[in-house]
Design goal:
Layout lengths: L2 E11 L3 H9 L1 H5 L5 E4 L5 E6 L2 E11 L3 E6 L7 E10 L5 E11 L5 H24 L6 E6 L7 H9 L10 E4 L4 E11 L3 E8 L2 E8 L2 E8 L5 H13 L3
Antiparallel strand pairs: 1-7, 2-3, 3-4, 4-5, 5-6, 6-7, 8-13, 9-10, 10-11, 11-12, 12-13
């Protein structure tokens, strides 16, 4: 049977409605804070996500720039379906409130833990979006994904030691990422023991987002500088493989 679900989020952004629309409804905008999508605009158009061996395509069901965007994925074999709605409201002073609704139906086997992870994941993405407007307005990023191997025991202590950051690192702490020498500041930390965590670092030219999931670590980089994305991916994949 499964169950219906609904997740709602709200973020106040230091940007105008048109800027927010560009960030949520264009490929370059989405790559700068979430994922690399190819967007075919308009109702009946599509949003297509390509991440290495993973591909997902959703239909655009609502398109009213710069006010509302609605997207719906195809239904899975178990009845699972996902829908996303973005509502944009401009405010005095040049700010914008973005309201977001993630709803749909989960098939059998999808538990409350999965929904909790969805909610915390959206918290991180919208934090990154807010930081994007504060630190990289008007710029677009290349998206780099580096997936680490599974079977890493106690990934948090291993990651923090290899990166050169203290195990008790906190938002606002200055850091120098050992693999590339990039200097920046920790901007996001969520710890759920040594296995589940998210560490965010912002440098003058990039966002780094390290995800600890069970027995492994993955990394997403939003690269605003002129560095080669392929070389960036190679360096970080080698780094993550060395953790095991």
């Amino acid at each position: 049977m499964g169950k219906d679900f609904r997740i709602e989020k709200e973020a106040e952004l230091q940007a105008g409605p048109e800027q927010v629309w560009d960030a949520i409804a264009t490929g370059p905008g989405l790559s700068s804070w979430m994922f690399p999508f190819a967007v075919e605009p308009g109702v009946g158009g599509t949003m297509r996500l390509d991440l290495e061996d993973y591909t997902e395509e959703s239909a655009i069901t609502g398109w009213d720039p710069p006010h509302r965007l609605a997207v719906r994925g195809s239904e899975g074999e178990d009845g699972t379906v996902m829908a996303y709605e973005y509502l944009i409201e401009g405010r005095d002073g040049g700010t914008t409130v973005l309201r977001f609704i993630h709803s749909g139906h989960l098939g059998d086997g999808w538990g409350d833990e999965y929904l909790a992870n969805l909610g915390s994941g959206w918290d991180q993405y919208f934090f990154t979006l807010a930081q994007y407007f504060l630190h990289f307005p008007g710029r677009t990023a290349a998206y780099v994904l580096a997936e680490g191997p599974k079977g890493v025991k106690d990934p948090w202590p291993r990651l923090s030691a290899a990166l050169g950051v203290p195990a008790d690192v906190a938002p606002g702490d200055p850091v120098r990422l050992a693999p590339t020498g990039a200097e920046g500041v920790t901007d996001y930390v969520v710890r759920e023991g040594d296995a589940g965590f998210l560490l965010g670092v912002r440098s003058p030219d990039a966002f780094y987002r390290f995800y600890g999931k069970g027995d492994g670590v993955d990394l997403a980089v939003h690269l605003f500088g002129g560095d080669d994305p392929k070389e960036e991916a190679r360096v970080w994949k080698a780094f993550l493989e060395a953790l095991s």
